[in-house]
Amino acid sequence: MTDTTASSHHTIVPPGKKIDLKDYDPADTGKFENKESAQVKLAAGIQQLAEYQNILYAQNKFSVLIIFQAMDAAGKDSTIKHVMSGINPQGCQVYSFKNPSSEELDHDYLWRTHKAMPERGRIGIFNRSYYEEALIVRVHPELLAAQKLHAIDFKQIWPQRFQEINDFERYLTNNGTVIIKFFLHVSRKEQKRRFLERITEPEKNWKFSDRDVEERAYWDDYQAAYTDVFNHTSTKAAPWYIIPADRKWFTRLTVADIICSRLAQMDLAYPQIGEEQRAQLAVAKKMLEGEE
After folding, report:
1. Could you tell me if residue 3 is inside a domain?
2. I want to staple 186 with a disulfide (CB 3.0 to 4.6 A). Which of 20, 59, 74, 287 is the partner?
């Protein structure tokens, strides 16, 4: 599925280069004009992803960490649901990180995510992640007080956290974890439409929170914080992908395409058995065939 969209090379944030989030169109749909034209490609991608996962699980050598970050109502939950619909639940785990608990605040900020990392052979999905520590905490610096840091230098803490996160991701990569980071880029106009939809449609009321509208007031601050994150933490080993999110069908297709492309680049293969195991299989086969 590596050629289903023209997006995977356009959406990547080039490591070592500066980008401006304003230059990325949230409504872009690549070469696809409508949902119908993309559905067949998405179905093929979901099937391909399931096949890769089977090999990943059997090989038990690598793990895959997929990170989703976004503004509210960008479609993280539905993207995870659709793209991972063909995955064997035994080989996949999803963590949604909310406000840190008192126990989590008594540890360093990477602790709660580090202990949730996927085991070898598995795909781990983070719905929000340690990047919140350079996003929501940056937009709301009063949250730093709860982290009980021994000293806070507001001029140095963000560059310091970028470096710590890069070091952390390099450590994970060196130990066999492939990291794929997605930012679902929704426009302010589309976010408003989705919020109103949550308010007016009874079956979606449960999705709405007053907090969503309050955070919307900080839109520009968040856009600036995300831009800074991308410019400092998109690395060769763990690049960021900015995914247009105004059209959910295109978001899902693009995410599936990129995940499949990254898995195709891995050294995935079913385990090879030795002569002793082959002999055991032959004995077992003979026994089974000899049953009445």
Report:
1. no
2. 74
